[in-house]
Amino acid sequence: MNNEVDLLSESIIALVGGEPGGKSTDVLCRKLKKTPQELGDVLDRLQEEGKIRSFAGHWISPPGIAIAKEKFLVALQEFHDRAPTIAYPPKADVALIAGLELTGKPLDRWVQYLADQGLVVPQGAGVKLATFQLTLTPRQVDFLDRLIAELEKQPVNVVYVSDLAKAVGSPVQAADEMLRLGQESGLIHNVAEGIWYSKRQLENMRNCVQEAFGNRPFTLADAKKLFATSRKFLIPVLEYFDSQGWTTRQGDYRSLA
After folding, report:
1. pLDDT of 81-96, one tens digit each?
2. What is the pTM of this model?
3. d(Cα 134, Cα 182) in Å, to the nearest integer?
């Protein structure tokens, strides 16, 4: 029995090979004339031993993974170079350019594998390099500047997307999309659903906290009194401060880091 398992293991490794394409469970079953149940334990053992890795039932060897990673990242960089105004290129298109036969769930798992290493950032059906910075067109810059100007008319209280769109004379969908592109460019931030602030607004609020409290701990109530705004807006702002390392929280108190 052990000889049969060993022979099966060797056959699987040979079929998967060192190429980036790898093989699906279905292909392995067909080639080896085995059922998925008959191959299951062998595949699991090979994965535990680090000889192959599954991406939703698509098996690739470590050498194949290294080649696939290089091909995918190079293809994604080329996509960014050709289309610097597209924040998240479709991951299926990137895989196609890279020559990787990965689609559906195997592709999703592959992209998440790269994301776990801090190499890419997935969003929906798209993906971008972690180091990529969006380049806006002059028309987009002008549109974003007008939206930011409307946002900054309220130092702390939020101007909702529908009101922003009305103020600049654009459809709500267009304003919402532009805000999201602005976030990719680092000029504005979505601190909670429907709550947008410009980078300057958040920095100004941080400076206000510094001037008001210095190194002294402060509570939500203290900040609410300082900014004369509602908890609805203030809680997401303070949580954003925490996430950025601007403040540290201990119980009901926060201190500037």
Report:
1. 998 888 889 999 999 9
2. 0.67
3. 9
Residues 6+ apart with CB under 8 A from 95: 72, 75, 102, 103, 107, 110
Cα dihedral across residues 42, 47, 51, 54: positive or negative = positive
What does the pLDDT read at residue 147?
A: 95
Query: Which residues fall within 8 angstroms of residue 217, CB to CB, at 6 or more apart?
Result: 250, 253, 254, 255
CA distances 124 to 8, 27, 88, 161, 225, Å, are 38, 28, 9, 22, 39
Dist. CA 211–CA 194, nearest whole Å:
28
On the 0-12 / 13-18 / 19+ scale of CB atoms within 10 A, 186 is: exposed
For Cα atoms 172, 175, 181, give the angle at the middle one, nearest 5 degrees: 145
Q: Strands 120-123, 23-24: parallel, antiparallel or unpaired by DSSP?
A: unpaired
